[in-house]
Write a structure and sequence with these properties.
Layout lengths: L1 E2 L4 E6 L9 E3 L3 E6 L12 E3 L4 E4 L14
Parallel strand pairs: 1-3, 2-4, 3-5, 4-6
Length: about 70
C-alpha cells in the first residue's frame, strides 16, 4: 500500500489489517489506531516513511510488536 498526497489516511482495526506486503508513506499523515491485541495496523511487511511524511500511532502497540519484532 502506498500513501501519497498531503491528506490523512487513518487505519484502525480490532483485528489488524489483512493485506500483505508493506506500506510506504510518501507524503501526508498515516494515523494508526485500534486495540492492543498484537495485530499490526500496517500489515506484515516493511513500513517505509519517506522524508516529510508523518506516522501517528494512537495505540501503544500499533505495529503488533511481539517476540521477534524489530522496530
Amino acid at each position: 500500500v502506498i500513501k501519497a498526497g498531503t491528506g490523512n489516511l487513518s487505519l484502525g482495526s480490532n483485528t489488524g489489517n489483512t493485506f500483505t506486503g508493506g506500506m510506504t508513506v510518501q507524503a501526508g499523515t498515516l494515523t494508526l489506531s485500534g486495540t492492543n491485541n498484537g495485530s499490526s495496523m500496517v500489515g506484515p511487511g516493511t513500513l517505509t516513511i519517506e522524508s516529510g511524511a508523518i506516522v501517528v500511532a494512537n495505540t501503544h502497540n500499533a505495529f503488533g510488536q511481539g517476540t521477534g519484532t524489530h522496530l
